[in-house]
Specification:
minor pseudopilin epsh fold, 9 strands, elongated
């Protein structure tokens, strides 16, 4: 307390010197430089997880709606070509993998995170789509008895996540960085 009074009497204000302030700013800058790459990786992983989990949710919805309705239900890109621009779950009455006027749309999902690429390598690769029949199994457009199985890969800033569809149409998520059995389409991307 006495120091503060002596400084006031001498005309000095208590506070930080310029050297102390610059030292603190240098330490903060170093800590930020060390933390930013880890934070960017965290954001990338979160964006990948969010998109993959949303897609798996759409797969489960498509399957359960097909079972509930006892009829074919499809999951396809909203624009008929690019999964990254969004997807739609609908009752595909004419089998063209597009939500046409008059066909019941069950759910829509908007575009994935900016910069994300989504590629599918499925049994029927003529068009990107997943179709489930009334028994809850995937099917191709050509035959309700031929399963639509394969891999859907999500790419973002060097990160990859995959959805694997098995013979019965069940989906599992895998991360090739952690699971060496998680290979699939687009490994070179």
């Amino acid at each position: 307390m006495e120091d503060a009074r002596q400084q006031e009497q001498a005309g000095l204000q208590p506070g930080f010197s310029l050297i102390e302030l610059l030292t603190v700013l240098a330490v903060v800058a170093i800590l930020l430089a060390l933390g930013v790459p880890g934070f960017q990786s965290l954001l990338r992983n979160q964006r990948l997880s969010t998109s993959v989990n949303g897609f798996v949710g759409a797969i489960h919805m498509t399957r359960s709606e097909a079972i509930r309705r006892g009829a074919r239900v499809d999951l396809a890109p909203a624009d008929s070509a690019d999964w990254a621009r969004g997807w739609v779950v609908f009752v595909d009455q004419n089998g063209n993998q597009q939500a046409d006027a008059g066909e019941a749309v069950i759910a829509r999902q908007g575009a994935a995170a900016r910069g994300m690429t989504i590629k599918s390598a499925l049994t029927d690769s003529s068009k990107p789509y997943l179709a489930y029949n009334g028994s809850g199994r995937t099917r191709t457009n050509a035959s309700s008895q031929t399963p639509q199985l394969g891999t859907i890969s999500f790419f973002l800033d060097g990160g990859i996540r995959r959805i694997k569809l098995n013979f019965s149409g069940r989906a599992r998520i895998c991360n090739p960085e952690l699971d060496k059995t998680c290979t699939g389409a687009g490994d070179a991307d």
